[in-house]
Amino acid sequence: AGEEPLATLVREAQEEIGLTIEPKDTQFVSAIPDPHDEEPPTAHQRHRDHAYLYLISSTAPIGDFTPQPEEVAGLQYVPWRAFQADHEQHPERYVPHTYYPALFAALKTQ
Fold first, then answer.
1. In whole angstroms, what is the distance from residue 64 CA to residue 83 CA?
2. Which helix (H) or strand (E) holds 15?
3. Quick one: DSSP state of residue 98?
4. Gyration radius from the chain CA atoms
5. HSE of 98 in the Cβ direction (CA atoms, 13 Å)?
6. How far, in Å, CA of 105 to CA of 70, rounded?
7. For 87, phi and psi rounded to 5 degrees?
8. How far apart are CA 101 and CA 30, in angstroms?
9. What three-state secondary structure class fits 99?
10. Can you spell out the DSSP letters for 25-69?
11. Per-residue model confidence as pLDDT tens digits over 4-15
12. Rounded CA gap, 4 and 24, in Å?
């Protein structure tokens, strides 16, 4: 709690996939509010979150990653355009997040 979004990215990447990220190697894309922010929180929701999108680039071989089994079912490299096409054709395969359009738009500028 109280951790800055970029610090959270660095920590979570290390914890969940074993990827060391330097803050200088990130590119901030967007902060996307929770779509439920207009509703009052329930007793189980003391605060709402934003999705903070950052782009990073890594040339690390996939074998160098160490996924945390409780959090990550698997890893694979996928060209982002293939990911976008699959997401558009089969959205049921993905966790429904509101940030996909901003992510794809940011990737197009790279």
1. 22
2. helix 5-17
3. T
4. 16
5. 12
6. 31
7. -60, -40
8. 11
9. coil
10. GEEEEEEEE-TTTTSPP-TT-SS--EEEEEEE-----GGG----T
11. 889 999 999 999
12. 15
Which two tokens mark 37? 């922010």
pLDDT value at position 37?
A: 59
Q: What would the DSSP string read from start to end of 68-84?
A: -TTT-S------HHHHH
Tokens, residue 77: 């490299």
Q: Encoding tokens for residue 33?
A: 């509010």
**Rounded Cα distance, 48 and 30, in Å:** 16
42-61 in b/e burial notation, b at 16+ Cβ within 10 A? eeeeeeeeebbbbeeeeeee
Phi (first) and psi of residue 25, to 5 degrees = -95, 15
Question: Is the pLDDT at 16 greater than 50, yes or no?
Answer: yes
pTM tops 0.85, yes or no: no
More confident residue, 36 or 91: 91
Q: Region of 84 please: left (phi>0), alpha (psi -120 to 50) or beta.
A: alpha
Q: Report the chain's terminal Cα–Cα distance, integer Å.
A: 32
Contacts of 77 (CB under 8 A, 6+ apart): 62
